[in-house]
Amino acid sequence: MTAVPLWRASLAEAVGTGLLVTVVVGSGIAAERLSTDAGLRLLENSTATALGLFVIIVLLAPVSGAHLNPAVTLASVVLDRRRGRDAAAFVAAQTAGAIGGALLANAMFSVTPAVSRTERADAGTVLAEVVATAGLVLLVAGLTRAAAAVPVIAAAVGAYIGAAYWFTSSTAFANPAATIGRVVSDTFAGIAPASAGAFLLAQLVGATVGILLTMALFPRRPDAKRAHPAPGAAVRVGSGSA
User: Fold this and answer.
1) Number of other residues whose CB lies within 10 A of the CB of residue 214
2) Domain encompassing residue 42
3) Which of 75, 78, 144, 196 is 20 to 30 A from 108 in CA distance terms?
4) What is the pLDDT of residues 18-34, one digit of tens each?
5) Is 232 contained in some domain?
6) For residues 118 and 242, what is the distance between their CA atoms, to the nearest angstrom?
7) Residue 126 belongs to domain with CATH number
8) For the chain, what is the largest distance between any 2 Cα atoms, rounded to a whole number of angstroms?
9) Would you call 8 exposed, middle or buried from its count of C-beta atoms within 10 A (0-12, 13-18, 19+)?
């Protein structure tokens, strides 16, 4: 596999995570303006997010593995022995992209940037974030180890998050970078800073659970070669130029 320069892979992570948060926040604002029914708003938001995830993963998996999520990057460090420098660059890019994506969504809908006042954290939603994040990490890492094709993983991730909007009480943030980004949008998809802190801790626990389940259920990576890296895979990155 040809090495992808770290700057290019990190840029892909920033762009991809930014687009993801733009989809989540933007569709949330649109849903809030178009509908008065809470269930319909959630349906609109979850459908847009599921479809957006599929497109972003298919597009960017060949460049960076399309982690789009520090929890997935953490799993790649533990399971695929990704270098710490690469992981740190990815997490920084994901976080910056997520904040930029939220601000972009605000701007497109003429929403003044503001810290969210939506309190979401309680015992049930924190547990839901553990479950949602563990399931996502297991899904991505397990299918990657099973050598599933990129479109299959992209569809599975989109379907999982779309479903998790509904079967978790937290609406499945399941992404530390996106959680931080959504703090700066006081809209339907926002989250207050205090709740974000609790969600971040729950997501770390969930990622750990997902990693342990992956080790138990998918103990070894198959030797089969793929034409492109699957989402979450340890894409070979280097410091060279294009």
Assistant:
1) 22
2) 4-221
3) 196
4) 999 999 999 999 999 99
5) no
6) 43
7) 1.20.1080.10
8) 52
9) middle
